[in-house]
Amino acid sequence: xxxxxxxxxxxxxxxxxxxxxxxxxxxxxxxxxxxxxxxxxxxxxxxxxxxxxxxxxxxxxxxxxxxxxxxxxxxxxxxxxxxxxxxxxxxxxxxxxxxxxxxxxxxxxxxxxxxxxxxxxxxxxxxxxxxxxxxxxxxxxxxxxxxxxxxxxxxxxxxxxxxxxxxxxxxxxxxxxxxxxxxxxxxxxxxxxxxxxxxxxxxxxxxxxxxxxxxxxxxxxxxxxxxxxxxx
Length: 232
Ligand SMILES: *C/C=C(C)/C=C/C=C(C)/C=C/C1=C(C)CCCC1(C)C
Description:
The protein has helices at residues 11-33, 39-68, 75-100, 105-126, 132-151, 154-162, 165-194, 200-230. The longest helix has 31 residues, at 200-230. The protein starts with 10 loop residues before the first helix and ends with a helix. With 232 residues, the protein is mainly alpha-helical. The protein is globular, with a radius of gyration of 18 Å. It is 82% helix and 0% strand. It has eight helices and no strands. The structure holds retinal (RET). Retinal (RET) binds next to helix 3, helix 4, helix 5, helix 7 and helix 8. Retinal is lined by residues 82, 85-86, 89, 118-119, 122, 136, 139-140, 143, 182, 185-186, 189, 211, 214-215.
């Protein structure tokens, strides 16, 4: 039966509900806590709140779509969300570095372009507009480039030279999020499309978990660094 009422045992639906509310709470938290941090960190918290706020809104739609279609992936809504929130995360990287040091804008554009390549490939693969394996390979290449950039490229050098401990702590946490946190997404994609037969339920559960980690924990990492730095 396709209806909006939550039934026991429907774990994927439950995860859509839980994450919707977690995103709302996180959004309120980041905006309210903005008062507690010094001037240069306020923009970072604003962006963190925008990311969870935009996600909350999309989660309401995804939750409804999942329930009313009786368990079909809300692929379009998910990618609309990612196409807005992933660039915002890249902006966040840049803002954190720019708060304490000078960064060339080329870095920002390289990260933006590579993350866009990653998402466009994923979208084309998930909507069957491109071969799912080829799309996966292109998406992985975009993501690996970002990892290279923040571990060995200019972003890492700028961060090492900045001399601001709180910002370096935030940068290192963000690095972990982009490496380990973001790794959950290709795992979801692989479960959804690369195995024998597609598993929309597990894939959405994994994507939902990934969004929880990467949008809320991501904001909390910035918040922790901002509070520590503001106490000085
Ligand atoms: C808030 C949403 C976030 C941080 C979304 C991130 C999404 C990814 C890191 C997606 C990565 C993918 C690959 C690395 C390869 C296969 C296709 C994707 C798009 C699932």
